[in-house]
């Protein structure tokens, strides 16, 4: 396409969402992707023979009201799959396995049965405590203005609300967990589940100050309701649908088109240059990459204000994880201790093996020291329980996420450390599912280094800026009053680096589309963003 209105760098789900919404408004859109597949860190492709493997994200978050319709997901073939059991948490040996049921009544009964009345009351009080901070964070609200933490604290309506924000922004996850689940023995599985939820998108342990923010962010309710879901055919099906939507509206998605530079003339972004030398001029440029990748690598430094450069250089972007993919010749089964769970295959969709909050903290401290944790916390999903189309008949696939990989260790040691950590994770899961190791037919192991190379994410950080309070809300903005503008006119960010942050919600892409639509003096791009 010659002289498009909008060129988008990166065909991740947010970039494609922005493109689809702008194409729907009649703008000429070109999306450029260096890889040969769409979706970025929410993509799906054949890694293991005959399988469709998710590369990164594996679950769709609850969408803001009206957004699925605005993106026309159903029209372009997206089918969502409900999860009767979201996960099963297994903490220390001897602890009960705690299923997380999608049905709230069944979940409440199970918590009461296994952990007691105080735990059930604790859940209710925790949710009540986090309601105001979650409203301020506005994780699932489209096009909210990112505010500075100090301003939000000053505007708190009363002392209790201010205390809630102070604890959310500066406290540790365990400050919250200890308050509502004080029984370290009876409540251990719940304490462990919440502690892990508080750290998986941070570079912190559950006792580290500041980790409370990620817990509140994770627990934030969505006014549209619902829980996370699987997407039939894998997460990449979402991006493949958006690609079809863009092309159906006259736009273009070019794969294998690596951008080498964002062109800036007279202080305004005017297009991009590809690695082969081709230039594509456009009225507006959107980048689905993170701030460092966009403004410190694709833009000539002479166009980036010094204060913006310093801000970006100070961002904490560290990917302390491993991503393992397995092809299995059968569905794993729980061992004798938890054998009753085998009666329902849904209990094997997602098992979380964490131990306890103290061990989680020690795992983080080992990572800080450049060592592999003794007991790496890990979750294993078997999506073929829900969607058999992802593997050949008679086989299953598993996706494992392991934390805390020492990604800052010397580069020449990381391959050895990666394999060592993968082995420890498999050994641990083999204790939960005896015989799992013998069921593995094919495997692949990716560290944060791989995602840095494959997806261009700085240090492999899938959050585009870890969920630390000082890097969220107003800390995610580069221009006051905007979630997406940069100091360079005509250049916008549209990915997870923007407020309200990471997770497959499409909100950063939708928000960027709304701001660009405003620049073109069009009506808001979506019903979810105010039309």
The span between the termini is 29 Å
Strand numbers in spatial order across the main sheet: 7-6-15-16-17-14-18
Reported for the largest beta sheet, the result is: 7 strands, mixed
Share of β-strand residues: 15-25%
CATH class of the largest domain: Alpha Beta
Q: Low-confidence parts lasting 5 or more residues at pLDDT below 50?
A: none
Q: What is the gyration radius calculated from CA atoms?
A: 22 Å
How many helices? 17
Record field, number of beta strands: 19
The CATH superfamily name of the largest domain is: FAD/NAD(P)-binding domain
> Can you tell me the overall shape?
globular
Remind me, CATH topology of the largest domain? FAD/NAD(P)-binding domain
- Assign a percent range to the helix content: 25-40%
Describe the structure using short key phrases:
seven-stranded mixed beta sheet; alpha/beta; FAD/NAD(P)-binding domain; 34% helix; 531 residues; five-stranded parallel beta sheet
């Amino acid at each position: 396409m010659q002289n498009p209105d909008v060129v988008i760098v990166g065909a991740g789900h947010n970039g494609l969402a922005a493109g689809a919404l702008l194409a729907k408004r009649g703008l000429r859109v070109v999306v450029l992707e260096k890889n040969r597949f769409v979706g970025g860190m929410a993509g799906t492709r054949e890694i293991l023979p005959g399988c469709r493997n998710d590369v990164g994200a594996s679950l769709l978050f609850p969408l803001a009201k009206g957004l699925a319709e605005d993106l026309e997901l159903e029209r372009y073939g997206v089918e969502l799959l409900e999860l009767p059991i979201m996960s099963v948490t297994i903490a220390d040996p001897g602890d009960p396995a705690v299923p997380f049921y999608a049905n709230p009544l069944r979940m409440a009964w199970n918590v009461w049965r296994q952990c007691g009345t105080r735990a059930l009351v604790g859940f209710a009080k925790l949710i009540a405590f986090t309601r105001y901070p979650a409203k301020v964070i506005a994780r699932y609200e489209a096009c909210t203005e990112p505010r500075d933490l100090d301003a939000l604290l000053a505007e708190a309506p009363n002392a209790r609300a201010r205390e809630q924000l102070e604890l959310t922004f500066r406290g540790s996850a365990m400050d919250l967990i200890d308050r509502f689940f004080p029984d370290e023995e009876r409540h251990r599985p719940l304490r462990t589940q919440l502690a892990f939820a508080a750290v998986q998108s941070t570079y912190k342990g559950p006792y580290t100050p500041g980790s409370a923010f990620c817990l509140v962010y994770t627990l934030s309710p969505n006014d549209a309701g619902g829980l996370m879901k699987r997407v039939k055919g894998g997460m990449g099906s979402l991006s493949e649908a958006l690609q079809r939507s863009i092309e159906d509206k006259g736009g273009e998605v070019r794969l294998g088109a690596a951008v080498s530079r964002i062109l800036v003339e007279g202080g305004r972004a005017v297009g991009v240059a590809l690695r082969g030398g081709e230039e594509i001029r456009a009225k507006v440029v959107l980048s689905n990459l993170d701030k460092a990748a966009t403004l410190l690598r694709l833009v000539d430094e002479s166009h980036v204000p010094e204060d913006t450069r310093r801000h970006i250089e100070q961002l904490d972007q560290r990917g302390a994880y491993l991503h393992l993919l397995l092809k299995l010749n059968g569905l794993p089964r729980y061992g004798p201790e938890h054998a009753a769970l085998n009666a329902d295959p849904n209990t094997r969709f997602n098992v979380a093996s964490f131990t306890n909050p103290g061990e989680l903290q020690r795992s983080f401290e080992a990572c800080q020291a450049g060592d592999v944790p003794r007991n790496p916390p890990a979750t294993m999903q078997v999506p073929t329980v829900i969607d058999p189309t992802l593997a050949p008949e008679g086989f299953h696939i598993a996706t494992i996420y392991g934390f805390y990989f020492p990604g800052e260790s010397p580069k020449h040691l990381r391959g050895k450390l990666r394999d060592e950590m993968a082995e420890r994770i498999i050994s641990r899961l083999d204790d939960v599912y005896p015989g799992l190791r013998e069921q593995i037919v094919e495997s692949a192991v990716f560290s944060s280094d791989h995602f840095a190379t494959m997806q261009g994410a700085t240090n492999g950080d899938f959050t585009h800026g870890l969920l630390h309070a000082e890097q969220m809300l107003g800390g995610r903005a580069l221009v006051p009053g905007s979630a997406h503008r940069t100091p360079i006119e005509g250049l916008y960010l549209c990915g997870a680096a923007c407020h309200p942050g990471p997770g497959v919600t499409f909100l950063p892409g939708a928000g960027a589309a709304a701001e660009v639509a405003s620049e073109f003096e069009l009506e808001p791009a979506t019903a979810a963003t105010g039309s």
